[in-house]
């Protein structure tokens, strides 16, 4: 009985760690869109540098939605290379 009482703090710690992993979910990636001329491009699954560039400038490269009033994600000038 004494041995069981001494191991309770360790058991509580293991149980807390288990619940922390079991009930936390990863955050979904926020969508990103870049304006290529007059077409909005969803760059969520594209690689920067390979499929598109955000050239240095003080403009908006990508936004959270396909709208000019959506919040900025990355700064720069959007240049779509292709898929």
From TrEMBL:
<dbReference type="InterPro" id="IPR045391">
    <property type="entry name" value="DUF6520"/>
</dbReference>
<dbReference type="Pfam" id="PF20130">
    <property type="entry name" value="DUF6520"/>
</dbReference>
<protein>
    <recommendedName>
        <fullName>Secreted protein</fullName>
    </recommendedName>
</protein>
<feature type="signal peptide">
    <location>
        <begin position="1"/>
        <end position="22"/>
    </location>
</feature>
<keyword id="KW-0732">Signal</keyword>
